[in-house]
């Protein structure tokens, strides 16, 4: 299968990595060559890590990397692709524009998917002349390690498109959860609700971030606590999702003030070195002040 991934950031490069390891020919496209090269370097590093941990052989890693080509121009990246997955920033207008641009250059039977974590797939797909070809493929970070993919069926997604999406996820060796196109789907809605309450507990002085996270990790077997996960996802991303869900579903998703303050201060989590934790070399080393 020919797979095109639009966006070479964290999610895009992860999706490209998973598809290439599964044996698909992959085209990774971003708007600047620098972004594409950064994405390819990230994939190479992840594959090297997999070899070191015995998850795949050196020859398998090299073969996967050989299946990925980088592009900056949209038309040659998407032309002839069986599946195009957009992984651009969480902006509805940007995603709608991307979908419309893609449709102008793909075959009639190509499936166009969005990796949105919370936006309406139906609204994104409304930019298409043939919205039945659109579906949500919500991957989780880090894509190479996470087993789940939500297949989000929009209002006009055809049965054939949904079946194609399920088969693709199965082929990646991941597990499908099929959901309707409700705000936040299943995972984001529940995940941000838990994270939001954890932030309010920090605000109220119930416990610090490390103890709240430890309670969920040790008491409920979560692999990562809700506040550390917020740092990994990005506080700005979590704030955008909460504001969208508040608009769609009401005040129970009102963003906590501590989240707003940190975002205004540029404390966005792991990517900036501080959020609810202080981060060094990609590891959380201590709760941040006030967390």
Can you lay out the helices and strands and say which pair or pack?
Blueprint: E1 2-6, H1 10-21, E2 25-29, H2 33-52, H3 58-66, E3 68-71, H4 74-78, E4 83-86, H5 92-103, E5 111-114, H6 121-125, E6 134-138, E7 148-153, H7 159-171, E8 175-180, H8 187-204, H9 209-219, H10 226-233, H11 235-249, H12 257-264, E9 277-280, E10 283-287
Parallel strand pairs: 1-2, 1-4, 2-3, 4-5, 5-6, 7-8
Antiparallel strand pairs: 6-7, 9-10
Binding site for NAD(+): 7-12, 30, 90, 95, 117, 141, 271
Keywords: NAD, Oxidoreductase
Site (Important for catalytic activity): 138
Please, could you describe this protein's structure?
The protein is α/β, with parallel strands linked by helices. It has two domains: 2-180, Rossmann fold (3-Layer(aba) Sandwich); 186-287, N-(1-d-carboxylethyl)-l-norvaline Dehydrogenase, domain 2 (Orthogonal Bundle). It is 47% helix and 16% strand. Strands 3-2-1-4-5-6-7-8 form an eight-stranded mixed beta sheet, sandwiched between helices. A two-stranded antiparallel sheet has the order 9-10. Helix 1 (10-21) packs across helix 2 (33-52) and helix 8 (187-204) packs across helix 10. The radius of gyration is 19 Å and the shape is globular. The mean pLDDT is 95. Residues 3-181 form the 3-hydroxyacyl-CoA dehydrogenase NAD binding domain. The record marks 138 as: Important for catalytic activity. InterPro entries: 3-OHacyl-CoA_DH, 3-OHacyl-CoA_DH_NAD-bd, 3HC_DH_C, 6-PGluconate_DH-like_C_sf, 6PGD_dom2, NAD(P)-bd_dom_sf. Keywords: NAD, Oxidoreductase. NAD(+) binds at residues 7-12, 30, 90, 95, 117, 141, 271.
